[in-house]
Design goal:
This protein is 81% helix and 0% strand. By secondary structure, the chain is mainly α.
């Protein structure tokens, strides 16, 4: 049975975070804003909703761990989405308008995520891996995301601030899109498909709506400059999911959520931010 309260709560929290993330990139620039926009946010209500949707008995803990093991893989797919936004626009025909370039990149990046996520879920069900094997895949996905983010950042350290504010209507649309994505992942989990819900919870609603909203308001420089920091910042999402798999069963949500968030931020967001600062200072372009 679908718990409307859980779905609505997760969707509402995701919508608020989506709006805040756009403002962060707009006001603080791609480097700082990109990292802050990808701290563990929508993953918090998503994991809580998935945890509450499972029967708290039998092998439900293993089901939750396998679901969370796919989150780093999902974030790797999100990193591929952001790589599309970083690399594709400059390779499109020069005669195209900025708006046409944006919509083409958006459509391509959604196809990248949809194809990759479908392949992951099919492979997961076909292989029927153990919890340990799923966790190993998640760890590999996390490390590959780290490598991808570092590569995107080394391409260019240029991550400017925006000079025009994102409009209220655009922010509202962004919040709605993010809320619907997280609501969908919650419904998938409550329908009895926890593996698919792990991937669905990483649908790049925050990334895509950040790219579109800031592109429309600021031009292509602000969102494309944020891609590397956003991929690196998203490492904290995979870390939060892994921590939740270990701590939710032991501590419950009341203690598990704040502890997972603090550990994920201190273990990933803070080091990434310091590394980006160091990289900026040593960049000849700065």
């Amino acid at each position: 049975m679908i718990g409307i309260a859980h779905v609505a709560g997760a969707a509402g929290a995701a919508a608020l975070v989506a709006v805040a993330a756009t403002v962060a990139v707009e006001r603080l620039g791609g480097r700082i804003g990109g990292v802050l926009a990808t701290m563990p946010t929508t993953i918090v209500p998503a994991t809580a909703a998935i945890w509450l949707s499972l029967p708290q008995a039998g092998d439900s803990h293993d089901m939750y761990r396998m679901s969370m093991a796919l989150v780093p893989v999902g974030m790797l797919l999100c990193g591929c989405v952001l790589a599309t936004w970083r690399l594709m626009p400059q390779r499109l025909p020069r005669g195209w308008s900025d708006t046409r370039r944006m919509w083409c990149t958006l459509a391509t990046s959604v196809c990248v995520w949809a194809t990759g996520s479908t392949a992951v879920v099919i492979a997961e069900h076909a292989a029927d891996p153990s919890v340990e094997a799923a966790v190993a895949c998640g760890a590999a996905g996390w490390l590959l995301t780290l490598a991808l983010g570092a590569a995107l950042w080394r391409i260019s350290h240029h991550a400017p601030r925006g000079h025009r504010r994102v409009g209220a209507m655009t922010l509202a649309m962004r919040g709605t899109a993010a809320g619907l994505a997280i609501a969908a992942s919650t419904v998938v989990a409550q329908a009895g498909w926890p593996i698919a819900s792990g991937i669905a919870s990483t649908f790049p609603a925050i990334f895509l709506t950040t790219m579109v909203a800031t592109w429309i308001a600021q031009g292509s420089g602000v969102p494309t400059g944020a891609t590397g920091p956003m991929v690196l910042g998203s490492l904290s999402v995979g870390a939060y999911a892994a921590l939740s798999a270990a701590l939710y069963p032991r501590l419950g949500l009341a203690l598990g959520i704040p502890l997972c968030w603090i550990l994920a931020v201190l273990g990933t967001t803070a080091p990434v931010h310091l590394w980006l600062l160091r990289g900026t200072r040593h960049s000849p372009a700065q």
